[in-house]
## 1
Amino acid sequence: MQLSVIILNYNVRYFLEQCVLSVESALNTIDGEIIVVDNNSSDASCVMIKERFPNVKLIENKENIGFPKGNNIGVSQAKGEYICILNPDTVVGEDTFTKVLAFAEKQKNFGIVGVKLIDGTGNFLPESKRGIPTPFVAFTKIIGLYKLFPKAFGKYYAQHLSENETGKVAILVGAFMLMKRELYNEIGGFDENCFMYSDDIDLSYMVLKKGKLNYYFHETSVIHYKGESTIKDGMYMKRFQEAMHFFYKKHFRGFLLFSVFMKIGVVFFSLVKRFQGKLIPKSLADNYILISEDEILMKKLKKQLCKPVKRQDISQPFLKSTASEIIFDQNYLDFKTIIETLEVNKNKGFPFKIRPKGANFMIGSNSSFDRGEVVIFFDF
């Protein structure tokens, strides 16, 4: 088997359904498998997987055991030569794995490869590629020097590469990490002493210490709704601080002043992240544009949303507006086309939603800080 896709889920049932649907399509021409590890969700995630995706291997944990241990359990059941750690709040294109695997096969001393991640509005997520957060690099990030002087101080977000340039990087984000299963097991997988948040930094760093090379691959884009798997509350702040302390204690133990500095920095970052998670309101669209050929769906949406809904072909340009929301019918469009359309129309004032194939809901988010929004359809 060539590829095992590991998806760790916790209470994001609708995002998980869309994610698995996209992964199934992307594995259509690949000898692969999907393994969903559920950390004791209470939102019927497991029931949905069993009913809609009977070929998916489902592992049901009896408690929330965290990101590292959950993924390690999934990998322990994997059979693929390669594994892909994938967040449930992501959407991959139909050719994503084909492209990434072809790239990986060509590399020498291959470690991990990540992809171009975009948020639910089509905008690039800079954490798709990062540098090692050494004391000085972390300092430039905290005080914003990387924004003012990206060439001199852009190491935190690996700004030696543009978002549209493939190349070597140090750190990749756990939303999408593809590597050989043998290497994952060789370094011991994710460190289970870290509950979450710095685990991807640590794994990337451990791969580098093995003499392997990590890559950012820009030729495929993956939607990452980002905040959906994480509620930014007091527990989030506590775990974020613990995670960063874990990484610096493990890899920069002898740097006493840096330890003090990072404690201050982590508090600052966690406060900012918590604030960001509450900034963006839900969409208040006055009307909707449905990208579909389904006349019946349009009529049902009008009744459901109690607002005007008009159909439009994907080939027609979207006129800039702050009052319209775009709904993509995935019965009519493939995921790759939807992702490409998001990128082309980013920053035009449109919120976007996707109605996954065969689903009774639509889903999306309005920014990289928004936790996402699910609209359940009635009488569908």
## 2
Amino acid sequence: MKIFKIIRRIIVLIIVLSLIVLCGFGFFVSPNEYTFKNIRFRYVNENVGSDLNDFKIAFISDVNLNDDDSLERFSNIVDDLNEQDFDMVIFGGDLYEDSIFSDEEVAEVLKSINCKYGKLAILGDKDKNNTLEITIILNNGGFEVLSDTSRTIYYENATFTLLVYDDETDISLLDASSSTITIGIAHYPDTYTTAKDYVNLQLSGHSLGGSIYLPYFGALFSEEGCTTYNHGTYQTSNSALVVSNGVTGTSSFPFKLFAQNQILIVSLNTASSD
């Protein structure tokens, strides 16, 4: 019987130590860590040729700038981003966490992003508290801010369509072609509930990946706009949603566990990739 007691105590000790390590990582290490996550999006349509193969979109969302340290960190992230291979960059919303500061410096950091086929942006829920000011900063950083619109992107001998919308947009009114890839950009992931009937791929942020994400249980935290979709990739028969964990958590809760801060690099691949 003693041997079973010893084994039980060892198991309990291992569990306790594992929880301590995970909590320590989530609270003290992960807030400043980030990664570049590569995603290959496979699209099957006989009308779409191979010219779009390996077109790469860098998707940045939820920067949540709140002080000079966060700005310096973001500047370092942009330096690392410029070392990646991508063709277009899209900002998915929430540049600042709250009040605006160092607007010229932030614009310079954004301007330093090197890009071949355009820098586009949408506004997040926090940005809309200072819509004009944030738009000016993004514009000065070389980003075109889009809202409730469609945009045709030309790449070599091919095109694809970007649809930009929010939870109040009637997506059916946006002009999308069925003969090419249609990519939706929306800050709130839950807009996918409607958008999946109109887009082949949606890129979203807002949820921060749930901040604390427990395998098999899901996101520990969810809020309006991300109660249904809040972490990772969701696939239907004709469409997919990719939710970014964001670049930074909020200053009130910067902690991350199994929801590492990230920048997405999404590669397009068509039926003729094989």
